[in-house]
Amino acid sequence: MANAVLIVDENALIRQALCELFKREADFEVCGEAENGQEAIEKAQQLHPDLIVMDLSMPVMNGIEAAHALKGLMPMVPIIIFSEYSDVFSAEEARSVGVSSLVSKSEHASVVVGKARSLLYDVAA
């Protein structure tokens, strides 16, 4: 069974690109999309994703606030912050609010899929 991924980014083109990236992988399916942190929380509660890939800088509620809220609601669901601002805070700070991994948008998109697999399969092990 494929792992359900929730994609969260204010930029529709980035959401579309991430959706296409995960749809090409046999072990993933995109269960939904959101354009801000508040919408991410609502969709996550409805869709129960196995993984959340989220931007840091978004309107209404940013990725840090959303990650903190989501970890309270779904402590076992890994959250990857995929952002051009991933160097703004340390990995330690990210983990303290519930972020499982940081990936810069300057890295190749395949890095996100690799991180997703390592987080999901480490959890399953």
Structure description:
This protein has 125 residues and is an alpha/beta fold. The chain has one domain (3-124): Response regulator (Rossmann fold, 3-Layer(aba) Sandwich). It contains five helices and five strands. The chain has a five-stranded parallel β-sheet, sandwiched between helices. Strand 4 (79-83), helix 4 (91-96) and strand 5 form a beta-alpha-beta unit.
Percent of residues in beta strands?
15-25%
CATH class: Alpha Beta
Biggest sheet architecture: 5 strands, parallel
Fourth-level CATH superfamily: Response regulator
Helical coverage, percent range: 40-55%
Provide a concise account of the structure shown:
This protein is of the alpha/beta class and 125 residues long.
Which keywords apply here?
alpha/beta, Rossmann fold, 44% helix
Outline the fold blueprint:
Elements: E1 3-8, H1 12-23, E2 28-34, H2 37-47, E3 51-54, H3 63-73, E4 79-83, H4 91-96, E5 101-104, H5 110-124
